[in-house]
Amino acid sequence: MIEKAKQFATKAHHGQKRKSSEDDYIVHPIRVAHTLSAAGCAESVVCAGYLHDVVEDTSITLNDIEREFGNDVKQLVAAHTEDKSKSWKARKQHTIATVQTGSRDVKYLIVADKLDNLLSMEAELHLTGESMWVHFSSGYEQQRWYNQAIVDVMYNGLPSSDIPAFFHEYEAAVRRFFP
């Protein structure tokens, strides 16, 4: 099922590019899924890593996800899909609340995504400098608030034995990028 999710996401994101680079968009879901797989996450979580942006950014629906990958994957993707009709701040507040109260697997999916996004932003900053911010609808202060808020709630409800190494990597990246 994991290879099927990778192929499905690759086809769905065909022709799309990352926000601030010319990289094919699919490199992001591949890295998210790899982070989840390396952490030993369940197959459904790794599949959701590949698929986490298809509903938000393509014509694929949650019903399509359920039909192809089942309800567990659909629920994970649904938990991470933003309502683009809402403002940036409202969408981010919803994500923060989802991380705070979500299941372990929902937390894993969202934090793996945020880690990859932040590492990409960090790499882009080193390449292009402050001009990278023109690619984002929110600036440094808003991004700092959002990423720090995720760090502040991501450990809620998780016993230490369920905290993957990439949570600590994300927390360190937030401290480094937003001193």
Structure at a glance:
This protein is mainly alpha-helical and 179 residues long. The chain has helices at residues 2-12, 27-38, 43-51, 54-57, 62-69, 71-80, 88-101, 104-128, 140-154, 165-177.
Could you please describe the fold and organization of this structure?
By secondary structure, the protein is an all-alpha fold. It has one domain (2-177): Orthogonal Bundle (Hypothetical protein af1432). The chain is built from ten helices and no strands. The longest helix is centred in the middle third of the chain and has 25 residues, at 104-128. The N and C termini lie far apart (40 Å). The mean pLDDT is 95.
Tally of contiguous helical segments: 10
Low-confidence stretches: none
Structural class: mainly alpha
Strand content: under 5%
Number of domains: 1
From the 3D structure, determine the CATH topology.
Hypothetical protein af1432
**Total number of strands:** 0
CATH class term: Mainly Alpha
Oligomer: single chain
Instruction: Specify Rg, calculated over alpha carbons.
Output: 15 Å
